[in-house]
Amino acid sequence: MLLIVLLRNLRWNKLQDAIPPEIGELKKLTHLYLSFNNFKGDIPVELANLQELRYLYLHENRLSGKIPPELGNLKYLRHFDVGNNHLTGTLRDLIRNGDGFPSLRNLYLNNNQMSGGLPDQLANLTNLEILYLDHNAFTGRIPDGFYKHPFLKELYIEGNQFKPGAKPKGNHKVLDLIDTEFLF
């Protein structure tokens, strides 16, 4: 018999190899923190079985392959962070239909190897507040819907090959410090 687990924090544990697909059997899991480990391989599609999942942190691993589009069926998922991995694929693959990721507020895809253009459907994620797309290989234009989005506060697009005129959205503050300022 599986125990009911609502929260699983396994950050910074030096875990490695693949994320076990059996994790999809923890049906009541609401928060899953697997960041800052050494997981490699694909993101298991079985994570889509976690229908109560609200927060999924997979950043700072060595995950590769495409993000399973089935994760878009997680109707309560609010925060999805897969930044700083080796993920490939396109947003069009991830956002296959207009009704995926209905509760998503924060999406971090930064520092991967994703490519292609930004589909107009991505702007239809009506609850989206923060979108990190920086440092991938995205191309084309930024759909106008992003600049008119009612809740989108931050859109990070640096380090891609967007057409001229593409602009980030939100407060992008850069702090420049000279090394000598740290000398006492």
UniProtKB/TrEMBL annotation:
GO terms for cellular component: plasma membrane. InterPro entries: Leu-rich_rpt, Leu-rich_rpt_typical-subtyp, LRR-RLK, LRR_dom_sf. The keyword Transit peptide does not apply. It is found in: Cell membrane. Its main location: membrane. Pfam families: LRR_8. Keywords: Cell membrane, Leucine-rich repeat, Membrane, Repeat, Signal. This is Leucine-rich repeat.
